[in-house]
Amino acid sequence: MTITDPAPRPAPAESPSSSLSANPIAHSSHQFPVLEARFAELNARFGHRWTDDERVVVRRALERQIELASRIRRTPLANADEPEIVFVPYGPAEDEQP
What is the Cα Rg of the chain in Å? Predict the structure, then answer.
């Protein structure tokens, strides 16, 4: 199994857990446990297949996902705000079906 990082970066000289100090998630008291729990679950399920480099890539991907989700949650929305993308299925109208 090969996991590719969308923005390849050199592996840190420290261990993966110590490289989090530069990441904003490491400074957030409620985000770090979420990262650890998600990484522990993935590592328990798939970790036997990963190399050390792949493990770092997976952890970074989780950090990014958690940070992006946090940013989305911090975006103020009014109750009347609609989604950016609205799904409209194409097909025959109900009254046109045989």
Answer: 20
- Residue 66 and residue 34 in contact, taking contact as beta carbons nearer than 8 Å: yes
d(CA 16, CA 39): 11
Positive or negative torsion for Cα 16, 22, 26, 74: negative
**Tokens 């989090």 belong to which residue?**
20
* Cα 41 from Cα 59, distance rounded (Å): 12
Instruction: Name the token pair of 25.
Output: 């998630």
The CA dihedral of 8, 12, 13, 15, to the nearest 10 degrees, is -130
pLDDT on residue 95: 62
Report angle CA 23, 48, 3 to the nearest 5 degrees: 55
Least confident of 13-22, 33-42, 47-56: 13-22
Is the confidence at residue 17, as pLDDT, over 80?
no
Residue 28 CA from chain centroid, whole number: 16
Amino acid at 44: A
